[in-house]
Design a protein that fits this description.
27% strand, alpha/beta, Rossmann fold, globular, 234 residues, 9-stranded mixed sheet, single chain, two-stranded antiparallel sheet
Length: 234
């Protein structure tokens, strides 16, 4: 398969430059389960949108420190593209910002997290089993980092995961799947990001996040589920 990775990450800091970019991280995630699959990466905030999205077998929308509710000039074109992909039933997966952008494009809403930052290894409870991923753990452990959340999923969407009373993912039909988490993050990256975000997190949440990283994430299981999603949706 050939997947388009739509990168929404706007971080151009020295920290970001010292680590793999999101296109590489998601490519590694996909190839963890399907080494022969190919990806093409598009940096949306630089105006690099695919000329023909239908040329791809599926699409991934990444996370971003930008808010999906902001008026950045590339966000509205992304929402339009999401609606077009939905109408064509092109397989579409969204993570964190991608999850929130898909919700907005399809009539849901996004708000600030009631308790502030969610960061570290997060336990996600699968509320509706995914038919393409019967082996995915019901208590799904994934890395996450966000200060906004989907507070209303779109009409016709099915919630598939929750965590700390917040929506953690939904599906629309069998062609859209989202997660509020960052399945592409490696243990080394989330540890480094936690240190980088220490001032923003505050001491209590920072310590909680560091302690959470003692547990392993279910990254390999999620990578398999992601591959199975694209296979069944296509």
């Amino acid at each position: 398969m050939h997947l388009a990775i739509l990168v929404t990450n706007t971080d151009n800091s020295a920290f970001a430059a010292a680590h793999p970019f999101d296109g590489e991280k998601f490519t590694r995630l996909v190839q963890m389960a399907r080494p022969d699959w190919h990806t093409s990466v598009f940096q949306l905030n630089e105006g690099a949108f695919p000329q023909d999205i239908s040329a791809f077998d599926g699409v991934i929308i990444t996370g971003s420190p930008a808010s999906s509710r902001s008026d950045l000039p590339w966000i509205e074109p992304l929402l339009v593209l999401i609606r077009a992909m939905d109408q064509a039933q092109l397989p579409l997966f969204g993570a964190c910002f991608g999850h929130q952008a898909i919700a907005l494009a399809r009539g849901g809403s996004v708000a600030q997290n009631p308790a502030g930052w969610v960061h570290g290894l997060i336990h996600n409870q699968i509320t509706t089993p995914l038919p393409w991923a019967p082996d995915l753990p019901q208590d799904l452990r994934l890395y996450g980092s966000h200060s906004e959340c989907v507070d209303k999923i779109p009409p016709q969407a099915q919630e598939v995961a929750r965590s700390t009373e917040l929506n953690a993912g939904f599906t629309i039909g069998r062609h859209i799947w989202t997660t509020q988490r960052h399945p592409e993050m490696s243990p080394g990256f989330i540890a480094a990001l936690t240190e980088e975000m220490h001032p923003s997190l505050g001491e209590s949440l920072y310590r909680q996040a560091v302690n959470s990283l003692e547990e392993p994430a279910d990254q390999a299981a999620f990578a398999t589920a992601l591959a199975q999603f694209f296979e069944q949706a296509k």
